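Quick start: read one record
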Amino acid sequence: KVKTYKTNQLKPVSWRRLGRSGLLLLFIMTGLFLAACASVTPEPENPDNFIAERAQDRWDALLSGDYRKAYGFYSPGYRSTTSAEDLAFEVRTRRVLWTSAQYKEHSCQENSCTVSFEVGFTVNRPVPGLDKWDSSEIMEEKWVKTDGEWWYVPHK
């Protein structure tokens, strides 16, 4: 005898009825769904704050001696012609030693920003009779947006 069901009557799904392959597929699909949700990068709350934080992060990396991290903030064009080792050598061998960097302000247009920092520095033996000279100066940096990311463009 064949059982018949009414068309508006649904049978409950049994976990046992899915079998091992069905359960495996269910777990894989759930994992993929969760991974897709986790990989979505949220947009920064305020793009103005984002450029200030990114520029400060570059300075923090330079001042702490993490030249590889600092190198990651430089524009793709700069990185295509200069290695991280070259950047580290340039910073370590310059006469002016940076001692601090404090974000001041920035102004942006569509895909470029000028970011100002008060940069503290020391010059060792600038003139005969003077061991070192400490000072600070306002420096302006150029940042450009390429492929949705902000990059530091150094002065030539």
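The chain has five helices and four strands.
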